[in-house]
Design brief:
The structure holds 2 protein chains of 2 kinds. By secondary structure, chain A is α+β, with helices and mostly antiparallel strands. Chain A is built from 12 helices and 9 strands. The two termini of chain A are about 55 Å apart. Chain B is about 55% helix and about 20% strand. Classes of the chains: A alpha+beta, B alpha+beta. β8 of chain A pairs antiparallel with β18 of chain B, so a sheet runs across the interface.
């Protein structure tokens, strides 16, 4: 034999895990309440996936990104809130621009882009309030084909019927306010491009319009709810209702704790973050199920054992595998955190934290719930009697 | 029972061999791959846009405006028809997005009015009472129409995007009114965006039969110009791909005459005067002739102005050809059989059903498209994609190494080694599965793979810990391993099914890269149920039989 296996835990342990359940209850409640309060008070740092908006990854053509300079340039651009962060290394940055409203400021921006790209003779003015109409004025008369070309310079795509007939020098493009808001995203991208394009290379652009953001958000919440419910129902069918409820509470606990981490570190809460939440939900339950499985087995075997004692016994029996299964995923995710690059960073950090929280909750939340839910009242009484005897 | 039955062993080996076979095209050099059958070549994992670079657009079609426009046209036609049939009416109004309401002067004329309306469109739903007639399209009709608009938009997009010479754009319908457009490898999207909503220019011209009869080198009078035919251009593309590329790349774009002069594809001389423009074409659809064995034909409808112009032109030019020009190509030049009045007509010829459908689509592409709004856009530069691939690969390799190390340290070279081997076979299975499905590998997908690495040894952990317990309880090595596998199975299945539930739901709700994550994770969890249980059991059974250990090295 080349080498001997190293047991994570040498001998059978006998920790009184559930004896600390009151402390755990307080700790978990505090963390969860803090997470909830954090979400409402400080808010999640929603990525553009859910809030809509623009994210542009830029790389300095020479040297490092001048964050302060960029911040002041872009901050006064009239595209609303702009946030900047270094992304990966010092020569690249991620620019986030808030979701664009289809307001008059956006039309003024469009005019700036138009003047820059098509010539000073151009004017772009908003139509009557309440509509999304935009009026373009050209320095000379244009036919429909050239109009189409011209407005495309500000990212506006139009169809035949929106264009003027004949050769004229003004075109009133009718749009709904919603369509204008979506177009304004394009205007903002072009404006940023024009403003910093000489010093920075745009490596990637993401733009999510107001409409899709809301949808992604709704789908995301639905996905989390559906996943939690499906897992809880599965556990309920495979075990007993108390197990199902315990699993559900543990899942909620894990998800909330992870959301709390997002609030605390102000990590980008994007679609991948949501994927992390769902994966944590699916994975953290693994340990729980392993413990539950053992509890079920031991309940059949030791009918006269106190419930708390039996749970403690089961947790101790399965402790090595609980630690080891979490350990393997932990090291894999650690590699993602360290080497996975900036795009996966939020996801990986969330997963890493989720693995830790999930392990904790399997023992102190899911299993403790079985005690609080009085899984076997008669066995719980045995515990109480023992405790009284010990006192006396 | 630890030992597998013979068929199980054979199945395991066959399954693994199959996985190798299907994962192989991913790493085979192109030279070898070219000699293999096509279906086999396609068994590859595509890189997602976030890894290879490219543009992703989600476009929304403004179907409401299309419907409103259609209702407005309907109200015009109904008004005309009622006047023609001398049915007096007070008012005809369009109820935006829903219906057309007709208010009659005389209730007793109702039946006559409805009959007149049936002439306009027999499929209309008629309701209302007394002097009010409410006209609405049926749900079926609306559904068909919506689908048509989207299909037509997709066709336009395909024409537009293909023109730029980019590689394999993906254009698919999403939901009711959306189109997903993915173009790998492009960096500058300005041009692409400009093209997205550019509708094709459709015009009808008379063919100058005198010039056409005089042969290809006849002088062309100033009233006439040469336009390449669609078949001609397709022929050119086949026979002279270089010329085709030149035409596509030309900046400014070449006019039809220049193309005819320089590259000499099949061209037709047509009169410059436009008989009818595409904006006057209401609809075109593929259908079948009523008589004569029901040949596939194309029927089309003009609005009032178009109908008049078309009527006059066809009446004066019976026996001549009428060329239908789409952008710079003539898509068809049917012979005028007789005066086509009343706003609608048919194009006959020796068409297949598929051809009529295509032609109808082309005809429609000049009319009635919906505005497409970009509601989501993601562009990834190729170097950014390369960074992502590098990061992902390093993370995957380091993650795998760490997991193997941990397994070897904790469970020793035999058990740990077998689990690691099983994990690697599992990764192979995932790759094979993704290749067969033609799934895309995205950056989150790589994260999913890394997670799979960590999770797929977990089942072995559960089994091995059980074996340790059974061994400590005094069982013989053989019996400990057998019982361990048997008793750990419920925990293995229960714990993995929950993760599978999450994976499947993630796939259902997620989009784009997230689906990539869900795909690799779900596949990995499914296949590992095989590798972690049956595959390692086979290895261990063989090992126990071979070494006959007195104590298990675990």
């Amino acid at each position: 034999m080349l080498w001997r296996p190293h047991h994570l835990i040498r001998a059978r342990t006998n920790f009184d895990f559930l004896g600390k359940r009151k402390i755990a209850l307080v700790l978990s409640t505090v963390i969860n309440v803090a997470s909830l309060v954090g979400v409402f008070v400080f808010g999640l740092n929603f990525g553009i996936d859910f809030e809509g908006g623009i994210a542009i990854q830029v790389k300095a053509k020479q040297g490092n990104v001048q964050l302060d300079e960029l911040r002041s340039t872009l901050g006064h651009l009239g595209v609303g809130e702009v946030s900047l962060q270094e992304f990966g290394d010092a020569s690249t940055a991620l620019i986030r621009v808030q979701r664009q409203e289809g307001n008059n400021q956006c039309v003024a921006n469009a005019e700036r882009v138009m003047k820059r790209r098509a010539g000073d003779g151009w004017a772009v003015k908003p139509g009557p309030a309440g509509t999304g109409d935009v009026a373009f004025t050209a320095p000379n008369a244009l036919d429909a084909v050239n109009w189409r070309d011209a407005v495309s310079r500000v990212g506006l795509t139009v169809q035949e019927r929106q264009l003027p007939r004949g050769t004229v020098n003004t075109a009133k493009i009718d749009m709904t306010p919603e369509q204008r808001a979506e177009w304004c995203q394009q205007v903002a991208i072009k404006l940023v491009e024009d403003t910093i394009g000489s010093n920075y290379e745009l490596r990637g652009t993401e733009s999510v319009g107001p409409k899709i953001g809301e949808e992604l958000m709704r789908n995301g919440v639905l996905a989390v709810v559906a996943t939690l419910a499906a897992i809880a129902i599965y556990v309920w069918f495979r075990f007993e209702w108390q197990f199902g409820v315990g699993a559900l509470i543990a899942l909620l606990h894990d998800v909330l704790c992870t959301v709390g981490l997002f609030v605390l570190l102000q990590l980008d809460f994007s679609l991948t973050a949501l994927a992390a939440l769902l994966t944590i939900a699916g994975y953290s339950i693994n340990d729980t199920v392993v413990i539950f499985d053992r509890v079920r087995e031991n309940m059949r075997r030791y009918k006269k054992m106190g419930l708390v004692e039996l749970l403690n016994f089961s947790i101790n029996e399965t402790l090595a595998r609980t630690l080891m299964t979490s350990g393997t995923v932990f090291v894999a995710v650690l590699a993602l955190v360290l080497f996975g690059g900036p795009v996966l960073y939020s996801f990986s950090i969330a997963m890493l934290w989720g693995v830790i929280v999930g392990t904790y909750s399997s023992i102190w939340v899911a299993s403790a719930c079985l005690v609080y839910l009085k899984l076997r009242p008669e066995q719980l009484r045995i515990d109480e009697e023992k405790a009284e005897k010990a006192k006396a | 029972m630890l030992n597998l039955q013979r068929w199980q062993t054979i199945a395991v080996i066959a399954f693994t061999a199959l996985a190798v076979l299907f994962a192989l095209p991913n790493v085979l050099p192109a030279v070898v791959l070219d000699h293999l059958p096509g279906w086999y070549q396609q068994s590859r994992i595509n890189l997602g846009l976030d890894l290879r670079g490219g543009a992703h657009f989600l476009l929304e079609a403004d179907l409401r405006s299309v419907l409103n426009e259609r209702l407005t046209n309907l109200s015009d036609s109904v008004r005309g028809e009622l006047r023609k049939q001398q049915v007096p009416f007070k008012d005809i109004t369009v109820e935006q997005g829903r219906a057309v309401n007709v208010v009659l002067r005389d209730e007793t004329q109702r039946a006559k009015a409805i009959e007149a309306i049936r002439n306009v469109d027999p499929s209309l739903g008629v309701s209302g009472s007394g002097d009010t007639i409410r006209l609405a399209y049926s749900d079926q009709d609306l559904f068909r129409r919506k689908k048509e608009v989207i299909d037509q938009s997709i066709e336009i997009l395909r024409r537009r995007v293909d023109e730029t010479g980019t590689i394999e754009p993906t254009i698919v319908r999403q939901g009711d009114d959306r189109i997903l457009l993915q173009v790998p490898g492009i960096k500058d999207t300005t041009d692409l965006k400009r093209k997205i909503n550019q509708t094709a220019k459709l015009t009808f011209h008379l063919v100058n039969e005198d010039v056409a009869a005089a042969g290809p080198n006849a002088p062309v009078p100033p009233t006439t110009f040469m336009v390449p035919t669609r078949e001609g251009m397709q022929e050119l593309r086949r026979s002279n791909p270089k010329a085709w590329e030149e035409i596509q790349a030309a900046n400014p774009r070449l006019g039809p005459e220049q193309i005819c002069r320089r590259y000499q594809p099949q061209c037709l001389p047509v009169l410059k005067r436009v008989v009818v423009g595409g904006e006057d074409l209401d609809d075109a659809k593929a259908t079948f002739e009523q008589q004569q064995g029901g040949r596939p034909i194309i029927s089309f409808t003009f609005n009032a102005a178009g109908g008049r112009a078309f009527c006059a032109a066809t009446r004066a030019n019976i026996g001549k050809r009428l060329a239908i020009q789409l952008d710079n190509e003539i898509i068809s030049a049917p012979v005028v059989q007789g005066a086509i009045c009343g706003g609608s007509g048919i194009i006959t010829g020796t068409f297949t059903t598929q051809q009529t459908q295509e032609q109808a689509l082309l005809l429609r592409s000049g009319a009635l498209p919906a505005t497409l709004t970009i509601i989501e856009e993601r562009t990834v530069g190729a170097d950014l994609g390369a960074d992502a691939i590098r990061d992902g690969t390093v993370a995957a390799l380091v993650g795998t190494a760490l997991v193997i190390l941990l397994m070897l340290v904790v469970y020793g070279p035999v058990f740990g080694g077998f689990a690691s081997l099983a994990m690697m076979v599992n990764m192979l299975l995932v790759f094979a599965g993704m290749s067969v499905l033609g799934a895309s590998l995205t950056l989150p997908g790589i994260a999913g793979l890394v997670l799979t690495v960590g999770m797929s040894v977990d089942s072995n952990v559960l089994i091995y810990e059980r074996v340790r317990e059974e061994s400590a309880a005094g069982r013989s090595p053989f019996s400990a391993v057998a019982t361990g596998y048997e008793r750990a199975l419920t925990a293995v299945i229960d714990s993995n099914l929950t993760a599978l539930i999450a994976g499947v739901l993630l796939f259902g709700f997620g989009s784009g890269p997230i689906r990539g994550f869900a795909t690799s994770l779900t596949l990995g969890l499914l296949t590992h149920l095989f590798t972690a249980t049956i595959f390692t059991r086979m290895l261990l059974a063989a090992w126990v039989r071979w070494r006959r250990p007195t104590a298990l090295p675990i």
